[in-house]
Amino acid sequence: MAPHGEGSEEAMVVQDENRKPISSILIVIAMQTEAMPIVNKFQLKEDLDSVFPKGVPWVRYHGVYKDLHIDLVWPGKDSTLGVDSVGTISASLVTYAAIQALQPDLIINAGTAGSFKVKGASISDVFLASDVAFHDRRIPIPVFDLYGVGSRQSFSTPNLLKELNLKAGKLSTGDSLDMSPQEEASIVANDATVKDMEGAAVAYVADLLKVPAIFIKAVTDIVDGEKPTAEEFLQNLAAVTAALDQAVTQVVDFINGKCLSEL
Amino acid sequence: MAPHGEGSEEAMVVQDENRKPISSILIVIAMQTEAMPIVNKFQLKEDLDSVFPKGVPWVRYHGVYKDLHIDLVWPGKDSTLGVDSVGTISASLVTYAAIQALQPDLIINAGTAGSFKVKGASISDVFLASDVAFHDRRIPIPVFDLYGVGSRQSFSTPNLLKELNLKAGKLSTGDSLDMSPQEEASIVANDATVKDMEGAAVAYVADLLKVPAIFIKAVTDIVDGEKPTAEEFLQNLAAVTAALDQAVTQVVDFINGKCLSEL
Questions:
Q1: What are the Nucleoside phosphorylase domain coordinates in residue numbering (chains A, B) (predicted)?
Q2: Contacting A residues, span 40-99, partner chain B, CB-CB under 8 Å
Q3: How far is the alpha carbon of B250 from chain A, nearest alpha carbon, in Å?
Q4: For residue A237, what pLDDT is reported?
Q5: Which of residues 92-151 of B touch A (CB under 8 A)?
Q6: Which residue among B81, B89, B144 places its CB closest to the CB of A88?
Q7: Quick one: average pLDDT of B158-187?
Q8: Do residues B217 and B199 lie in contact, with contact meaning Cβ atoms separated by under 8 Å?
């Protein structure tokens, strides 16, 4: 999702944009448990006069922190079942609607994720994704196969990565918490270190609407470890959310006062 | 997605709405090959002053047919790869944006699909889905598991089903053209006769924004047959699209002049 093209008028506009300090960021988070520490940390207030259509469960918090306007959105509770609206469809929709309403300069998709011991990951590691792709959209027809995988580079932030000492790794997204053998093969093909349920969907929408996006994922479970994913995820969710919260705070502090090209 | 609740003010409004003749329908289709015969049949014109944001590939055709305003949307070609933007995320986004912009009375999601010989299906059969669900969103945590499956009834149209002599069956949706053993188990658990890549996503968005939706699916491939799905799909796409086109025309003719409660 790095802006591309050189010499054109569009490229000049993009360059100018990249030189202005970032003024508004949109944090997209899938679960309330993940969202609330960040809401509290930045003292964001819930938007009671919603920018979203009547009836949708999507929730927006917003506020000013240093020189940044911060919007945080999460897709809210499923109105019938009462659980967090996780997964790619809800994440896509709330990202789309939030970009339309709020026109952010930069999107941060933050959340918990699974990772792999064969890739050297441990619980509570925080990764900044270099690339995102899907692992559960198999369409074995030429070119459609590439569309299904939907591999994208995230916005390049070499200074952020170095300064905050985050781990870098590729992220793979699918709508299941577990992993079938077919999905495992796709994750290996994606060379992914981190596995989540929203990242590539947020990236797709951000790319569609030409907003740079970065992905911060904290590890709640080791997919190729001993424990069942669901059990390990629930056990570690609260503790790992604290690590995520700390990383997002550091990232926001780093972003403050900088322009896109300085990240 | 049938309106529910009795005696409340909201229910009264819904009842009044159901008694007004349907004036606008939104046809959501995933592929250009599936869309164009219907565009031509109803002499719809492409919307050149798009209701969608700049840069998105989504395409809208519209026109008047008898007493109905018809909008047809498809998610367009992927701007990088040039293939149709199939699957749940694109379908969700274009359905959401089209409902917001066009406020239709009824959504028709039409398309080709796979089906099963164990369920008695043949190539070119046209099904009206009674229920929709997902088969590739496994979240093995209580209640989240139900959210993942996302089972919904489509809007009930008993008269339409009887009059047009369509087959009824449950529809299961996933982002892969093929089917892993885990997905097969989920499709069996969903008791599905028809398998597509968009229906449950369209249903989710329609439910979120409270628009009744129906699902017309024509069979291009027998999933439990001899031939590989991708090969059979490509072989039959054009011919089955003709059957789909005919069924959609019959459905639109049936809808014309009726209110929702008469369907």
A1: 25-252
A2: 53, 55-57, 78-79, 81-89, 92-93, 96-97
A3: 31
A4: 86
A5: 92-93, 96-97, 100, 134, 136-141, 143-144, 146-148
A6: B89
A7: 95
A8: yes
Tell me if B72 sits within 8 A of B35, measured CB to CB. Answer: yes
Query: Around A94, how many Cα atoms within 13 Å sit in the side-chain half-sphere?
Result: 32
Cα distance between residue B130 and residue B153, in whole Å = 6
How would residue B8 be classed by pLDDT, with cut points 50, 70 and 90?
low
Contact B78 A147 (CB under 8 A): yes
- Please report the residues numbered 13 through 42 in chain B whose beta carbons come closer than 8 angstroms to any beta carbon of chain A: none
B100, closest residue in chain A (CA to CA): A53
> Which CATH architecture best describes the domain B22-262?
3-Layer(aba) Sandwich (3.40)
Could you give the CA distance from residue A127 to residue A110 in angstroms, rounded to a whole number?
10
Residue B6 in this model has a pLDDT that exceeds 90: no
Cα A97 to Cα A172: distance, rounded to the nearest angstrom: 23
Dump pLDDT digits (tens) for B10-20: 555 556 666 78
Domain edges within chain B: 22-262
Beta carbons of A62 and A52 less than 8 angstroms apart: no
The span from the CA of B122 to the CA of B115, in Å, is 8
Low-confidence ranges of chain A (pLDDT < 50): 1-7
A208 CB neighbour count, 10 Å cutoff: 23
A93/B180 CB distance under 8 A: no
- State the CB neighbour count (10 A cutoff) for residue A65: 16
Write down the H helix ranges in A152-228. Answer: 158-163, 181-189, 199-208
Q: Which pLDDT score, from 0 to 100, does residue B218 have?
A: 95
Q: What is the DSSP string of A10-28?
A: HHHHHHHHHHSBP-EEEEE
B235 pLDDT higher than 90: no
pLDDT score of B49: 80
Is the Cβ of B220 closer than 8 Å to some Cβ of chain A? no
A139 and B177 within 8 Å at the Cβ level: the answer is yes
State the nearest Cα–Cα gap between A179 and chain B, in angstroms. 9
Q: Inspect the interface and report whether the beta carbons of B176 and A148 lie closer than 8 Å.
A: yes
Q: Of the residues B34, B125, B136, B232, which is catalytic?
A: B34
Q: Which of A82, A85, A93 sits opposite B93 (nearest CB)?
A: A93
Q: What is the mean pLDDT of chain B?
A: 92
Distance from CA of A132 to the nearest CA of B (A): 15
ipTM tops 0.90? yes
pLDDT of B101 above 90: yes
Helix (H, G, I), strand (E, B) or coil at B48: coil
Domain A21-262 part of CATH 3.40.50.1580: yes
Q: Flag whether pLDDT at B233 surpasses 90.
A: no
Confidence (pLDDT) at A49: 80
Q: Which amino acid is at A77?
A: K
